Amino acid sequence: MPAIRLLARLRRNGGAALRLPRGAPTALAVVPLLALTACGYGSEAVSDSSGQQVAAGAGKVDGLGSVKIGYFGNLTHATALVGARKGFFQRSLGATRAEYQTFNAGPSEIEALNSGSIDIGWIGPTPAVNGYTQSGGRSLRIIGGSASGGVKLVVDPERIKSLKDVKGKKIATPQLGNTQDVAFLDWIADQGWKVDAESGKGDVSVLRMDNKVTPDAFRSGSIDGAWVPEPTASKLVAEGGKVLLDESDLWPDKKFVITNIVVSQKFLKDHPNAVEAVLRASVETDKWINAHPDEAKAAANEQLEADSGKGLPADVLDPAWKSIRITDDPLASTLDTEAQHAVRAGLLKEPKLKGIYDLTLLNKVLESEGESTVDDAGLGVE
Prior knowledge:
Layout: H1 3-12, H2 31-41, E1 45-47, E2 53-55, E3 66-72, H3 78-85, H4 88-93, E4 97-103, H5 106-115, E5 120-123, H6 125-134, E6 140-149, E7 151-155, E8 170-173, H7 179-190, E9 205-208, H8 214-220, E10 225-229, H9 232-238, E11 242-246, E12 257-264, H10 265-270, H11 272-291, H12 293-308, H13 314-322, E13 324-326, H14 332-345, H15 360-368
Parallel strand pairs: 3-4, 3-5, 8-9, 8-10
Antiparallel strand pairs: 1-2, 5-12, 6-12, 6-13, 7-10, 7-11
Helix pairs in contact: 3-11, 3-12, 5-6, 7-14, 9-13, 11-12, 11-15
């Protein structure tokens, strides 16, 4: 039997031993071993259909064929980027495939979570709050943190030389009601200026545009600045912009949640072991990122390139990476504050956030790793 046909049968059999036909060359008996060692992990790994490494003999977590993970192509989602690139999620899930889907905006990711197109996602705090409140507390749970910081107000230094010069200017945010939009509207209110939240018109013109087009708009002069996450902020700096304000400076201890991990409540209830596996991988990834920042930065950029076809140049990647703090802590008290900012802006009715967090599995993982547990600020599920 030709070796290629034997390999095909081997794949169909999931790597099980094959009975060779009588008279087959003895050398073919080593084909299964060669097929395994070619994966790069000796006889301890095989590749699944997506090419990711799966430990030989590993079982499926909760009997699942796959776990679908969503994230944005932003460095503020570094845990997901690095975890996917370096295989942390796949190793933790064993023979259950880690499948990935990228998003450009929070509402579309929440929609995917609600429809079952993804099971677990990395997402900003405002979309998480909106998704939870609009469903009457039935759609999702926040099960972990991922990142703090990485948001800046970058301006044209020829047009805006001080914070008071922002009045009367055109400033971009990523999307109406997204985390950065809400933060900017709240900052505007703190200055005593008036802006209609829905239209963006007022003492400052707030223009909502996709982060992908913001650098072009800045370059052309159609906007005077932008309140945006990394790496968009550093892209604007590379275009001649100046960081006028780092949002971290507005928060106690310079910490505020920018990325959470969310899961559909149904998936959490039906597949707790799979959720725990993803959280374990997230904690391991965060530990690795903080211990190997340069390697992690490169891995995140490699995943950005794989997802979008284009990585970030060093003059954008390096400063962007430095401004983000990777953390397992969801910084729950700051989420409550951000929700109040949305209420103040008129974009959200007074939210009922009790039950939005379930940190049980995260704290289980943290305790097993000898790490300190994290707090839900009184907003946990009972």
